[in-house]
């Protein structure tokens, strides 16, 4: 059995921006808060981190700064995926050199690879780095699913060890086919406990940006055998989770952090500001949950 990169609650952390570039002072504040709150891993430059708007040099600088801030206290997992295999390999190698403990590699988007193409794409990345890889399956964004049979084919690569899975319906089949070859993490905040009931190792969470302690407690309660408490926490958080996805991520969660007093800046275009109506709903829900 391969050793997990982490077990528990990982945060898909936002990237704070100013007009000049990433705000590393605020990133440090966020990372310290996450670690103090019990977060088990920090996932940098992913979807929530707006990596798709970053030139490569900035992308790698953000990874390096995060690794320096965290200083080995929890794993730092760097998003490095691309729909160009050569680009994905280059980013992966630079992230490894920058100090990342592992990589999060998203399914290629737009050009719609075949399943065989996915095997070759992820396999080529795995062959060019020595750190572990978590595959990121998010069909709602990529319009492409990684099928369970494709996970089985990729299991021959020793450093492809995990899956961030947003297609929860196929988790049981993946587990049946792959027989423990992967650590599976929920990519859906609303379905963490259902996924862990199928043997999942935790979550890579958007909501943890604003409630790191509650997400960590929910997951740790499950692993400690406090199943009813974990289930109730999942249920109790559903209205907050819903509002965090009222518009495309990370628009609502960055707005929430600003309402909480963190100077994370706006999202970069083409992502726009949260609508006034949804901002009012978000502020109300943050108040209801005692966050502001």
Question: What would you note in describing this structure?
Answer:
The chain is an alpha/beta fold and 292 residues long. It has a single domain (8-237), classed as Alpha-Beta Barrel (TIM Barrel), CATH 3.20.20.70. It contains 13 helices and eight strands. Strand 6 (160-165), helix 7 and strand 7 form a beta-alpha-beta unit. The longest helix has 15 residues, at 56-70. 48% of the residues are buried.
Keywords:
single chain, 292 residues, alpha/beta, eight-stranded parallel β-barrel, 44% helix
Top-tier CATH class: Alpha Beta
For the record, the CATH architecture stands as: Alpha-Beta Barrel
Unreliable stretches: none
Derived from helix and strand composition plus strand pairing, the structural class reads alpha/beta
Average pLDDT, all residues? 97
Shape: globular
Count of separate structural domains: 1
CATH topology (level 3) name: TIM Barrel
> What is the CA-atom radius of gyration, in angstroms?
18 Å
Q: What percentage of the residues does DSSP assign to strands (E)? A: 5-15%
TL;DR of this structure?
The chain is of the alpha/beta class and 292 residues long.
Helix-strand blueprint:
Blueprint (H helix, E strand, L loop, with lengths): L7 E5 L11 H13 L4 E4 L11 H15 L5 E4 L5 H13 L4 E5 L8 H13 L5 E5 L1 H4 L5 H7 L5 E6 L5 H8 L4 E4 L5 H5 L5 E4 L6 H12 L3 H10 L1 H6 L7 H9 L16 H13 L4
Parallel strand pairs: 1-2, 1-8, 2-3, 3-4, 4-5, 5-6, 6-7, 7-8
Helix pairs in contact: 1-2, 3-4, 4-6, 6-7, 9-10, 12-13
